[in-house]
Amino acid sequence: MKTWVIKIGGAVLNTADAAKALFAVLASQQQARFVIVHGGGALIDCWLKDAGFATAKHQGLRISPKEQMPYIVGALAGCANKQLISQAIVAGHKPVGTSLYEAGVIVSQKLKALGQVGQCTDNSDSILPTLIAQQWLPLVSSIGFDEKGQWYNVNADEAAAAIAKKLDAELIFMTDVEAVLDANKQPLHQLNTQQIITLIEDGVILGGMEVKVKTSLLAAQHLRRGVYISSWQKPENLIALLAGEHVGTKITP
Ligand SMILES: Nc1ncnc2c1ncn2[C@@H]1O[C@H](COP(=O)(O)OP(=O)(O)O)[C@@H](O)[C@H]1O
Ligand SMILES: CC(=O)N[C@@H](CCC(=O)OP(=O)(O)O)C(=O)O
Fold this sequence. Notes:
Elements: E1 2-8, H1 18-27, E2 32-38, H2 41-50, E3 57-58, E4 61-62, H3 69-90, E5 95-98, H4 100-103, E6 105-109, E7 118-123, H5 128-133, E8 137-141, E9 143-145, E10 151-153, H6 156-167, E11 170-175, E12 190-191, H7 193-201, H8 208-223, E13 227-231, H9 235-242, E14 249-251
Helix pairs in contact: 1-3, 1-9, 2-3, 6-8
The structure holds adenosine-5'-diphosphate and ligand 2.
């Protein structure tokens, strides 16, 4: 049975019932297993602002000082994760919330200057195969831990790619745009290494999309298959992707 890792951008939480509609699609698919990895960048922005913190990003990654981590963890592994659990229950699933640690991905510090930003490194034992075999729907937040138990904020796209590698699964990124767009805002149906380099150099792909595209490319190379970027705004896109149709942007190795 095929396993799919589906990453859902955190902006989904700002649209009522959008996640529920995606979960309903998954509930109708009996011949596949799913792991959801979710973001929550917009919610973290709100929580940090309410707590009086300034926040900044470096190449799409949030600089995460230690003193901000309780708010980041609370927003991502707490509030965002549990809001999605609610919507998954309503759609008929048996969801279970985890962090990267339980999913079997150990994290280390990416760069001192970024504080507690983590990168996915070693794999360890994962609870995911057991959970999906028992028809649980894992909802994984991108909070991770190292072997000393320190917590880290991992970009959710990188988290999803690490889990897809671990499970040798299909990988789909559901974001808030229908596809990667070219300089004229037209959807790009397929992207390879050279096109990606050029579009980033030209400033056409930037911010969160730069992280997503680079992460997709590394994942596609490792998995030796295409990785898709599509929109959570249209649940029918997910139905088509699961049926093997080409929707959004396909990143090829
Ligand atoms: N070339 C591009 N094509 C599409 N979106 C782009 C592009 N460059 C930058 N973006 C931005 O990237 C955003 C998606 O990345 P991000 O906000 O990190 O999504 P998510 O939260 O789903 O991971 C889009 O909403 C858009 O503002
Ligand atoms: C290190 C880093 O940047 N972490 C991200 C984690 C959340 C995320 O990736 O959320 P989206 O998928 O909604 O963008 C952040 O703090 O925003």
